[in-house]
Write a structure and sequence with these properties.
By secondary structure, the chain is α/β, with parallel strands linked by helices. The chain has eleven helices and twelve strands. Strand 11 and strand 12 form a beta hairpin. Nicotinamide-adenine-dinucleotide (NAD) binds next to loops.
């Protein structure tokens, strides 16, 4: 019998636990060689343990090196800082990789989107270095370093080489943020010289947003600083069927955490309505990362068949199936 990979499972909050249940039931039915070590985090554990990201969670991921994570709520403007950002920082998960690909059977304005967002995950405005100057003024620091920028650029080019991608495009606002985005762009250009076989170009982030809406087929691998990467990821999800189908991975040198692009969607929580596809595709990225490509392919095949058939889709894709019914349909197609 194949030995099982021990993986940390963080169900998260909001819709997290219900989509996590759906995904783990599919992996179990597919005989995925994975054993879960369940770790809770977020607002729910704050009262009992005094912190939203207890040490045990980080220790579990550091030990197992791989985690599958449901979304965790971050209150806007008050309360604790984001568990998601803290986790990425603590484990130095520097590369956020988010494929956005047209899926069969899903209504969308575009038919041939095949993008990969490679987002720097540790610095920029997203690091949350900010202060209140007085009641009417606040400041945020946009910190960009050459080291982090070269590291994410190298990840993007290596990804392009290993996955036979067409080109890499650096995204910035270097015309306005001349020092910070200017440094990011300079770092990507330096790294690009080491990959003459991969076509390379550059675009300003505002123009990119327009181009993606008009003609997304033009782009392939996009490498971006943290905040632009966050925003463009949601835009790319919208090109391929919405947040319910957009997977992601946070990759570091010593650990990797796989999670959907979407958040905890509090308004949907507890209704057994949320689409588990994004987390399921994230789990497939995880299986490939673990060297279990055949198992990932089998699950993706069943998922794509369900989407194409269109008989048991969740509400966000125009259907009426519950989260659990969708999962059962995928299992039936395995
Ligand atoms: P969201 O991604 O939770 O929801 C945005 C929209 O997409 C909503 O209309 C929602 O109903 C829909 N949606 C999202 N996931 C869906 C799914 N699986 N199936 C069907 N529809 C889905 O974004 P938000 O409302 O801005 O954020 C809610 C909370 O999640 C916030 O506290 C935010 O900080 C947090 N968040 C967490 C993560 C993470 O854990 N990595 C990522 C993004 C946002």
């Amino acid at each position: 019998m194949t030995e099982k990979h021990l993986v940390t499972l963080i169900p998260g909050d909001g819709i997290g636990p219900e989509i996590t249940r759906a995904v783990t039931s599919i992996l179990q039915a597919a005989n995925a060689p994975v054993a879960w070590e369940v770790q809770t985090a977020g607002a729910d554990v704050l009262e009992a343990e005094g912190e939203v990201l207890p040490r045990r969670v980080l220790e579990s991921i550091a030990k197992n090196k791989v985690a599958l994570k449901g979304p965790i709520t971050t209150p806007i403007g008050k309360g604790f800082r984001s568990v998601n950002v803290a986790l990425r920082k603590a484990l130095d998960l520097y590369a956020c990789v988010r494929p956005a690909k047209t899926l069969p059977g899903i209504k969308s304005r575009y038919t041939q989107v095949d993008l990969v967002i490679v987002r720097e995950n540790t610095e920029d405005l997203y690091a949350g270095i900010e202060r209140k100057v007085n009641d009417d003024t606040a400041e945020s620091i946009k910190r960009i370093t050459r080291g982090a920028s070269e590291r994410i650029a190298r990840y993007a080019f290596e990804y392009a080489v290993k996955n036979n991608r067409r080109k890499v495009t650096a995204v910035s606002k270097a015309n306005i943020c001349k020092f910070s985005d200017g440094l990011f762009l300079d770092a990507v250009r330096t790294v690009a010289k080491d990959y003459p076989q991969i076509p390379y170009d550059e675009v300003l982030v505002d123009n990119l947003c327009m181009q993606l809406v008009i003609n997304p087929e033009v782009y392939d691998v996009l490498v971006l600083p943290n905040l632009y990467g966050d925003i463009v990821s949601d835009l790319a999800a919208g090109l391929t069927g919405g947040l319910g189908v957009a997977p992601g991975a946070n990759i570091g040198t010593h650990a990797a955490v796989f999670e959907a692009v979407h958040g905890s969607s509090p308004a949907l929580a507890g209704q057994n309505k949320a689409n588990p596809t994004a987390l399921l595709l994230s789990a497939c990225l995880m299986l490939r990362h673990l060297g279990e490509a055949a198992c990932a392919e089998r699950i993706e095949g069943a998922l794509l068949a369900v989407l194409k058939e269109g008989a048991s889709l969740t509400f966000d894709l125009g259907g009426r199936a519950t989260t659990q019914q969708f999962a059962e349909s995928v299992i039936a197609h395995l």
